[in-house]
Amino acid sequence: MEPLGSRTAPVPTDGRVLTVRGLSKTYSGRTGRKVANDSIDLDVSAGEIVALLGPNGAGKTTFLRQVAGQLLPTAGSIEVAGVDMVRSPRRAKEFLSVIPQECEPRSDLTTEEHLRYFARLKGETRGSIAATVERLLTETGLAEHRGKLVRELSGGLRRRVLLAVALSGPSTRLLLLDEPTTGVDPEGRRSVWRLIDALRARRIGILLTTHYIEEAEYLADRVAIINGGRLVAGGTVEEIRATLPFRGRLEIRGLDHLTPSARVLVGELESKYRVSVRLGNAERLEIVDPFRPEVVQELAHLTTEGVRATLSPVSLEDAYLAMVGAEAGELP
Amino acid sequence: MSWRRFPDQLAVSTHMQLTGTTRELGLLLGFTILFPIGILFFLNVLIVPALRVQVLIGTIMMETALLNVNVLAQAIGGDKQTKLFDLFVSLPISPAVYALSIALSILPFSLASAVVTLGVAIVAFHVVITPFTLAALVGGFVLVWGSTLGVGFLIGVLGRSPRQINSMAQLVGILLTFFVPVFYPASILPLPLRVVAYGWPLTWGAQFLVAVVNGPASTLAISGAVLVGFVVAWFALIGSGIRWRER
Hints:
The complex is a heterodimer. In chain A, 32% of the residues lie in helices and 28% in strands. In chain A, the strands form three sheets. Chain A has a six-stranded mixed β-sheet, sandwiched between helices. Chain A has a four-stranded antiparallel β-sheet with strand order 2-1-4-5. A four-stranded antiparallel β-sheet of chain A has the order 12-13-11-14, with helices on one face. In chain A, strand 7 (174-178), helix 6 (186-198) and strand 8 (205-210) form a beta-alpha-beta unit. Chain A is of the alpha/beta class. Helix content of chain B is 79%, strand content 0%. Chain B is an all-alpha fold. Chain B has one domain (3-239). Chain B is globular. The interface between A and B is medium-sized, with 34 and 28 residues.
């Protein structure tokens, strides 16, 4: 079976399917000038998944909409498969597919009709459309739902329909997914993740935005963190975690049920280690080296005192919270 | 995208719109069939027999324009609500493909409505329509359809939210119903209102269709030329991608 998106698209010799340089977007309004994106540089290579993380209003969707050709940038350049999106949007759009945030497929069309129509609009020929639709239905697990109207499908299946639509172009080299699993139940989310992950082998570059840190950890080869319209960090999950000055975290729960002696013990630890997050009756302490015997001993003391405490290596979430501010996150 | 793909993309997109529309037929049929017949009977009670042709043509015009404005604007509003509009903008298609396909998917219903209205007028009100008049009426109908679809498209793309789009479409609908001289001759309006009325393609359309039935040829030619001008202007505006890609 021929892999999707492998037929006609040009891929620049350096393998990059998206090259963004100095991308800025400013709005002028009655309340003054608002900078939504500020000089962002970002690349996505063929077969690579890049996750864009950031709090609400950080500029993720604005960035994605500019790359998708829905919004004109104020400054900077965007190249999709080597084609300038600002100057030649219609040509550049032949090489990308988008699933906008909270997008819903048409409720009055069936799954198969979605694929048939959108594939044709994206350049699939009349002669190849039947085979393409069959292949997409099989690969996205939608074959048994082909004749159902979209309004009869669950949220997870609707996401699959949109993914199948996004994959339907013969020249797709770049896939833009704006919060692809928001509003989808955990089971549906994992099935969408598996589908996205499988696209890696097809040499399609994927840029996705998400609020779910675990989604970025599961899927992304590289993560870019955006805050206040600026790119504040970028790299692999390991590289981003390594930017933190501490390697572990001690999470203490049940702070409002501590015995007096446990309260003293926790107080000592709070004065020794920096508290990174405190929410409700739980807190998180930054541990520079979680493998030191002294730290393990402290954890044992806490457990002996009946305190619910766990020691774990730093996660992407810790790095994210350190970069965008702890107020943006919550303890899981 | 090559413009060579325009006809193919238009055909595919229109088929898609039509497939969806025919699954939500009830409201559309009520709007296209019952509404014009209702107007026709209502106005026939009030209007002197000499103005029957004007009323008939006004009803067809109003129905066509309201469908174009309301359905096109609200279809775009619906697509904005479900974010499908963003998906369409990201496709390698011209905005004209998108707008025209929605308008074309409404055309059969407008046409059916016009035929039913005409049939009722002939049978119930004994309006005489010759084959030549019928052919000219169809031509005029297509011109009116083409000259008003841009209004719906503009409301759809300029509106920031489905609610705003809905309100704007309703407002324009009210303006069309009460302030555009399609049920009566524009000549009875005071001069300032007449000037405003001639800014609407509908006024020219009504004048054109009345001239098809009653003449004179000069009015027919001038009105027809203005309608063609409106059609060309709308297509140029839509094709230029106004607000297709946001700034």
